[in-house]
Amino acid sequence: MSVDHTALSRPGDVAPLPGSAGVRSPAGSGATTDEVMAVVASRELVDATTCFVGIGIPSTAANLARRLHAPRLVLVYESGAIGAKPGRLPLSIGDGELADSADAVVSVPEVFNYWLQGGHIDVGMLGAAQVDRFANLNTTVIGEYASPSVRLPGAGGAPEIAASCGEVVVVVHQSTRTFVNELDFVTTVGHGDGPGARERLGLRGRGPSAVVTDLGVLRPDPVSRELVLGALHPGVSLDAALAATGWPLRVAPDLSTTAPPSHDELAALRALVAAGARRP
Amino acid sequence: MTELLRLDEAVETLVHDGDCVALEGFTHLIPFAAGHEIIRQGRRDLTLARLTPDIVSDQLIGMGCVRKLVFSWGGNPGVGSLHRLRDALEHSWPHPIEIEEHSHAGLANRYVAGASGLPFAILRGYAGTGLAAGVTNVAEVACPFTGERVSAVAALNPDVSIVHAQQADHEGNVQLWGITGVQKEAVLAARRTLVTVEEVVDALEPRPGATVLPSFVVTAVAEAPGGTRPSYATGYSERDDAFYASWDAISRDRRTFLDWMDAHVLAGARTR
Asked: What is the distance in angstroms between the Cα of B73 and the nearest Cα belonging to chain A?
């Protein structure tokens, strides 16, 4: 809930349930844009690691990874569920299914203080309403803080997830509304103002390693820490990605194309989403 | 020690206008029945502390009970916005409210300090964020041993903390299990505590992983079967996801909201 960030990716709108967005991706595989995002994000997760999971597309991606290439991925939810193995997609981070299937359920102070801050989580998956060129995130307000045009849910677990996880994968729809030159509010520090920022702030994790969008995948430059477009999804033009970015977007010289969702990936994703829809 | 009261008696005795009231329950075991009783009794000027203000907070805010909200994530999980919270912040309806906003880790540690009898707690967090700049009860401190800079958050000691649990016994010992959130800390930090329970039983059966709140930290217990709906109580009920989804339409419009509250919450007072 806290980390219900994907619910925020379209400020002011009601978020669709994961995978329910009917927008067809140009990928040609018959996948929707949300399905492409979930599949590509799931590929960022490595087997036998620990993942702090936000609700929405991050949760869809993490649960998908566990069903495909990462069966030993340990899912940690901020409700205190450690090693959750839900049979269906949870609607909230506190669904009973998460606790019932977990290796352990601990308190909220414990999950943040001991497990996250203690350095035991390899990767965090977050959404956002706004992202800037250094992958800093806003989930707090659109407009002025004191008189917001859109009041968003706020920080939840995100600031500490981004501070203390070994690395962070951000999943967000890409448009000039979300990819902004300047955040309206810095809820969560990614790479701050560039080289050395995380170290100066005492943030122990390495920060965002990838931003997965409906158009492609961006990664921080190893030196400048600025996001660089490294891959486009099939059928997405470079011009579209540039036009959907609120700053002059850097593009990798070896810009590649992501592999479209495979038959197995899509089948597993759709089974997962269908199971979630059959809740009582 | 603990008094076993009717819910209306308990709220009347323990919750006063102007109090700082913590209503905790992290998705699971949210004390809806107690929140509704606060609304029926027309409490005003409350400081509402809650990590995850969701529907019950939206209802308290929309009905004008809340002067200040202390929170860390205010939304309808998996659904979208809290429209009554947004209306209060964006349009001052029904009146302006003040907010003090944290991260989950920050607010959880405010309760930890309060429960520990300490003036503040420390954590790695807030650094570089807009939250550090604008929020009261957060400050940077130096480690006295190494000089390292970390964030301090002031203790939160609510006038009254209200939680929902599965069971209490006749002496007022309480047991809750499943996702237990920050309830133990909120109860131990508070001056007064009210626990609503699914049922009062003759004897609590020990359960691995359960949280026990002994009667000497519980001011009052009120039996409120189903008192956490549309949230849920592990072992008793399932989360009503469909209601969470339907709240979006109910709460979007002021009139629809007020009519719903009148029919489903205030009506409880008239029929008693």
From this structure: 5
State both tokens at A140. Answer: 């707090």
**Residue A168 burial (C-beta neighbours within 10 Å; 0-12, 13-18, 19+):** buried
Q: Is residue B170 within 8 Å of residue B202, measured between CB atoms?
A: yes
Q: Give Rg (Cα) of chain B.
A: 18
What pLDDT is recorded for position A88?
Answer: 87
* Type of residue found at B119: P
Locate A71 and state its tokens.
Answer: 């069966």
Residue A64's pLDDT is 97
Which tokens in the block code for residue A128? 């956002």
What phi and psi values does residue B221 have, to the nearest 5 degrees?
-115, 135
β A216-220/A227-232 pair status: antiparallel
Q: Does B124 contact A at CB distance below 8 Å?
A: yes
Neighbours of B117 (CB within 10 A): 10
**Is residue B119 left, alpha or beta, with left meaning phi > 0 and alpha meaning psi from -120 to 50?**
alpha
Nearest residue in B to A153, CA atom? B74
* Contact residues on chain B for A90, CB-CB shorter than 8 A: 78
**Tokens (6 digits) for B195:** 């626990």
Tokens 């700053």 belong to which residue?
A: A247
| pLDDT value of residue B134 | 72
> What is the signed CA dihedral for A44, A47, A52, A54, rounded to 10 degrees?
50
Domains contained in chain A, CATH given: 5-275 (3.40.1080.10)
Q: How does DSSP assign B160-222, residue by residue?
A: EEEEEEEEEETT--EEE-S--TTHHHHHHH-SEEEEEEEEEESSPPP-TT-EEE-GGG-SEEE
Task: Tell me how far apart the alpha carbons of residues B230 and B79 are, in angstroms, rounded to a whole number.
Answer: 14
d(CA B90, CA A151): 7
CATH of domain B3-101+158-264: 3.40.1080.10
Shortest Cα distance, chain A CAs vs residue B98, angstroms: 10
Residue ranges of the domains in chain B? 3-101+158-264, 104-154
pLDDT digits (tens, 9 = 90+) for B216-248: 999 999 999 999 999 999 999 999 999 999 999
Q: Is there a cis peptide before residue B230, judged by omega within 30 degrees of 0? A: yes
- Res. B132 pLDDT band, cuts 50 70 90: confident
Give the tens place of pLDDT for each residue, B196-224: 999 999 999 999 889 999 999 999 999 99
ipTM: 0.96
For chain A, positions 164-203, list CB contacts with chain B under 8 A.
164, 185-189, 192, 197, 201-203
Please check the confidence at residue B162 and state whether its pLDDT lies above 90: yes
Residue B133 has pLDDT above 90, yes or no: no
Q: Where are the beta strands (DSSP E) in B179-218?
A: 192-201, 211-213
E runs forming strands in chain A: 50-53, 74-76, 81-82, 104-105, 123-126, 130-131, 137-138, 141-143, 148-151, 167-171, 208-212, 216-220, 227-232, 250-257
User: Which of helix, strand or coil describes residue B7?
Assistant: helix
